[in-house]
């Protein structure tokens, strides 16, 4: 019997409450099912493991001449472009020679969907949203969609969001660290909560009215129009489900964290975005993040950070083999890898049970831009870090020789998050899971 544990065990979402303050606690041993066993104090039971996934897409990839390791397996040597990753080399599987369904400009859409919208005008649901739909309302925010710009790019000359919902429509991303921080952690006032409840009730009533009218209309429609109407009703149901989830979370106070001033964060935008992302994962505000970190049409290359870069990154990739541009490309690669490693360090330093948040997180660095000019769908690099407590066994450097679809990696991550997939997953652009990781 474990009567003592039943008496003092704590709920994962326990808050310390004071006057106008509610402070969310981190994971404590007293919150675990093993908390009554001193020999296992601090261990997470299998049922308590919180899986997380962070998908990041880096437009324009990396310099292929300085990012390809010479050896494969666990004893490979990190090349110059990726040197900053060395502290996490054993926690990472480094893939080279993957291929996507499309590459070059405007290819971000296919990164998480496996669908090339330029062929037949078809769009797909993204991996993060498939996982989010499966997890349901376990977190306040089922997922976070982040980007280098606050636009979807849908219908225009760029595709800036990675996230596409089950209705194949794009999700608006966020690019402002301060707004993201406030959304996640700024406490709602009593008046704001009340107003949200009123809006929710009003919207629900309106939707009920629309639904009844639509049902009456359906009896008078032809077959084609009935299909269109059903698509419309499906969208309404999706909205109702999201509103119901939002309403349940209104009564739950947001996690209390130290305030951060991002007013002058432009120079440190990457770190600011990664700081807030780490906080969101640590507080279990979300378990899924899709972040389009860098555009394949963007000009950013530390040109404005007094590092002496004479060109923007896009110009550098169109290098025609010029030694000077290739040299700067390698430097930019290493600097941006430092930003990614900064994020990995944040997750590694956050303790959870006897491990870290990184141990329970599948952190993916990827791209749809490869080759000598970073505009090809082949020769793609990708790095998967963490996730060892989710069953990932890292394999060092895996050279794929353009024989392995990027979709195999996406399917592997999705299944490690506990989601069952099939041949239609990722638009069918995969040939299975990556066996080296399990």
Mind explaining what this structure looks like?
The chain has 438 residues and is α/β, with parallel strands linked by helices. The chain folds into three domains: 1-43, no CATH class; 49-186 and 258-437, Alkaline Phosphatase, subunit A, CATH 3.40.720.10; 188-252. It has ten helices and eleven strands. Strands 5-6-3-9-10-4-11 form a seven-stranded mixed β-sheet, sandwiched between helices. Strands 1-2 form a two-stranded antiparallel sheet. Helix 4 (177-185) packs parallel to helix 7. The chain starts with a helix and ends in a 22-residue tail after the last helix.
Structural descriptors:
438 residues, single chain, Alkaline Phosphatase, subunit A, 11 strands, two-stranded antiparallel sheet, globular, 14% strand, 7-stranded mixed β-sheet, alpha/beta, disordered N terminus, 33% helix
CATH architecture of the largest domain: 3-Layer(aba) Sandwich
Largest sheet: 7 strands, mixed
Integer count of domains: 3
Describe the strand arrangement of the main beta sheet, using strand numbers: 5-6-3-9-10-4-11
**Strand-and-helix sequence, N→C?**
HEEEEHHEHHHHEHHEEEEEH
Low-confidence stretches: 1-8, 14-26, 37-41
User: What percent of the residues sit in helical stretches (DSSP H or I)?
Assistant: 25-40%
Average per-residue pLDDT, rounded, comes to 81
CATH fold-level label of the largest domain: Alkaline Phosphatase, subunit A
Number of helices: 10
Tally of strands: 11
Counting helices, strands and paired strands, the structural category is alpha/beta
End-to-end Cα distance, whole Å, is 36 Å
- C-alpha-based Rg, rounded: 23 Å
Shape: globular
- CATH C-level name of the largest domain: Alpha Beta
């Amino acid at each position: 019997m474990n009567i003592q544990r039943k008496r003092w065990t704590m709920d994962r979402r326990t808050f310390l409450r004071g006057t106008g303050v509610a402070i969310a606690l981190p994971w404590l041993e007293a919150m675990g099912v093993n908390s009554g066993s001193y020999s296992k104090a601090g261990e997470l039971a299998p049922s308590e493991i919180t899986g997380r996934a962070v998908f990041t897409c880096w437009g324009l990839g990396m310099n292929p001449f300085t990012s390809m390791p010479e050896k494969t397996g666990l004893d490979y040597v990190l090349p110059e472009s990726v040197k900053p990753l060395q502290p996490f080399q054993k926690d990472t599987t480094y893939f080279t020679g993957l291929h996507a369904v499309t590459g070059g400009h405007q290819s971000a859409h296919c990164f998480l969907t496996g669908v090339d919208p330029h062929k037949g005008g078809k769009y797909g649901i993204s991996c993060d949203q498939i996982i989010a739909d499966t997890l349901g309302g376990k977190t306040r925010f089922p997922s976070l969609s982040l980007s280098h710009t606050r636009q979807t790019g849908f219908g225009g000359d760029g595709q800036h969001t990675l996230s596409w919902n089950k209705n194949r429509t794009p999700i608006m991303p966020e690019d402002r660290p301060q707004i993201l921080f406030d959304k996640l952690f700024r406490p709602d006032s009593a008046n704001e909560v009340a107003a949200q409840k009123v809006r929710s009730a009003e919207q629900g009533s309106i939707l009920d009215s629309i639904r009844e009218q639509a049902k009456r209309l359906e009896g008078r429609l032809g077959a084609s129009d009935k299909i269109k109407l059903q698509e419309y009703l499906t969208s309404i149901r999706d909205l109702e489900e999201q509103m119901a989830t939002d309403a349940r979370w209104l009564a739950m106070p947001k996690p209390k964290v130290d305030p951060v001033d991002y007013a002058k964060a432009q120079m440190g935008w990457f770190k600011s975005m990664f700081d807030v992302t780490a906080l969101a994962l640590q507080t279990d505000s979300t378990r899924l993040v899709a972040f389009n970190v860098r555009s394949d049409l963007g000009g950013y290359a530390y040109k404005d950070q007094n590092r002496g870069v004479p060109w923007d990154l896009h110009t550098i990739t169109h290098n025609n083999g010029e030694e000077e541009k290739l040299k700067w490309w390698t430097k930019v690669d290493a600097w941006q890898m430092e930003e990614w490693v900064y994020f990995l360090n944040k997750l590694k330093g956050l303790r959870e049970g006897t491990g870290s948040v990184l141990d329970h997180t599948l952190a993916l660095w990827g791209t749809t831009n490869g080759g000598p000019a970073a505009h090809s769908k082949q020769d793609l690099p990708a790095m998967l870090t963490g996730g060892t407590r989710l069953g990932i066994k890292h394999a060092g450097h895996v050279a794929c020789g353009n024989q392995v679809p990027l979709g195999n990696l996406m399917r592997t991550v999705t299944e490690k998050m506990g989601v069952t997939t099939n041949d239609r997953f990722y638009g069918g652009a995969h040939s299975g899971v990556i066996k080296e990781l399990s």
